[in-house]
């Protein structure tokens, strides 16, 4: 295995040597296996850090380095910072593969920051769910991981298990609901599912925002901005019901909290993680190959088993326990996903409307 450098964002900006990332010494080439096709080459890839990065190294980076002879340098950048970084570096890009989890791929493609990927560039295309490749025609990279967003329910609540998004407004849960703030994408996506259930949809979200805001302003619901805050709400604030992600419901279970994830009758939405080739680098084929490794069933299985992300490759084989903690196959075909461009265009207005209501 090659020894990789894990860089901070500041280090990436500071070192011009990364622009010459394809260069390495003869000793490096020998160490990585000079007979391998990409021996001596290096790509720079963004990571979300933490447990995600641990799974990422196991699932993708190590197998990629072993099979190709190339070296991977990781830089920890969350989505908004990653977009800012590739934007600032447009004239002289220093990243090869960038990951987004908040829809930033739409903006990146629109601004020519990422290179289009054809379905034929990916050997796994035939085994992927349709959602995984839907963005390719817009110039975006494929979806590599998916976190369904539905309802997280406290099984010890003095109220029945919910069945609908509209159960958020049921008197049985009054005073025991946690809503996610619109500063968090999960809050926006949950609101859109409520808007669909109310009949307005993404084109008319006023009633959904008004009704959710009324829950918060009346005290029937609390508002939490982050995942740790949601854990606190279930652990210490007597929360019974919250719209949130399936993988984090598992995190709460691991912390000993009595919760389960429920798919509402109207269906779930999802937070998507995409992998994208940065425009203007000199090794796009190697970057595309790296993304292909991310889509392999073996890589998908690691993220499902370790992180509870639902796999986008239909050939992924999971343990019984992991299969119970994710959505697979036909279940994923019914996930409702909103066009990133539509969400990005309207989100500032939605947020202003929401903030005005919850600060009354």
Automatic annotation (TrEMBL):
On the tree of life, the source organism's domain of life is: Bacteria
Show which residues constitute the signal peptide: 1-21
Kindly state which keywords UniProt assigns to this record, in alphabetical order: Signal
Task: Report the GO terms under cellular component.
Answer: outer membrane-bounded periplasmic space
What are its GO biological-process terms? thiamine transport
**SUPFAM superfamilies in the cross-refs:** Periplasmic binding protein-like II (SSF53850)
- GO MF annotations in UniProt: thiamine binding; thiamine pyrophosphate binding
Q: Which ranges does the record mark as transmembrane?
A: none
In terms of InterPro entries, this protein maps to:
SBP (IPR006059)
> Which Gene3D superfamilies does the UniProt record give?
Periplasmic binding protein-like II
Which PANTHER family does the record cross-reference, listed alphabetically?
Answer: ABC TRANSPORTER SUBSTRATE-BINDING PROTEIN (PTHR30006:SF2), THIAMINE-BINDING PERIPLASMIC PROTEIN-RELATED (PTHR30006)
Q: What is this protein called?
A: ABC transporter substrate-binding protein
The organism encoding this protein is: Microbacterium oxydans
